[in-house]
């Protein structure tokens, strides 16, 4: 049924007894050879199913979310895990296909726009030592930068992760992580964060919530909370070290805004999909506690969270 969003879990909860998982992990906590083999076989079978399904996939979908760039990213990751050369060749094949069918829409994000295929292609070409093609993809990726920084207003670019500024910023972050150094200068990232801060201050004033949350964001007239469209995804990046120029602005704007999100928490530990929505329904990455944990952990790691004790989750972490 369309309204059924989960499968029943047939497995018993872990009872804390190491003997119950001895077939899965050895005494050092590493996968046993038998279990690792089962996982490897399962991966092979799933890849065969996927490849068969791709025969009827949309040939024009280049995106990381639903298209060829996402398949290339999967094979790039598999190559990183297993070191199998055929996986890198698969990534090369699929990323080449993604570059033949750009979206040419206003979407500029890693998942839904042209930034994703360009970023993945830059990394794949770098891995196969095709430096010129890698640099060309990076150049095309950075050509989108100015429109991301400047786009604003009711008809402009949103700030969130799936379709907005943070989705483009993730593409830049992905490049730096994969290349292992600051291939993208920090100034490019800081300019995007500056635009997001200005946007958030303006929306906070418009919603008249400056005293509770100096920053506020909306997507499709909803003040989403979760990472995909909302506050958690935006604050996660704003709290990355060095992304916002000057710690003073992080403490003055971001920290109390994170506090505000914490105060939205339901007694169950979950969070609402949107501010003002009192339904405790969604428990997944896009909307709900699982995705918000990323934001809270970043606040905890960076020691950029207030010490008022208003977020019980962080208090529990330190106990």
From TrEMBL:
Zn(2+) binds at residue 286. Its EC number is 2.5.1.18. It is found in: Cell membrane; Cytoplasm. Keywords: Cell membrane, Cytoplasm, Membrane, Metal-binding, Transferase, Zinc. The keyword Membrane applies. The keyword Nucleotide-binding does not apply. One of its GO terms (biological process) is carbohydrate metabolic process. Its main location: membrane. It is a peripheral membrane protein. InterPro entries: 6hp_glycosidase-like_sf (IPR012341), LANC-like (IPR007822), LanC-like_prot_euk (IPR020464). SMART domains: LANC_like. GO terms for cellular component: cytoplasm; plasma membrane. Belongs to the LanC-like protein family. This is Glutathione S-transferase LANCL1. It comes from Oncorhynchus kisutch.
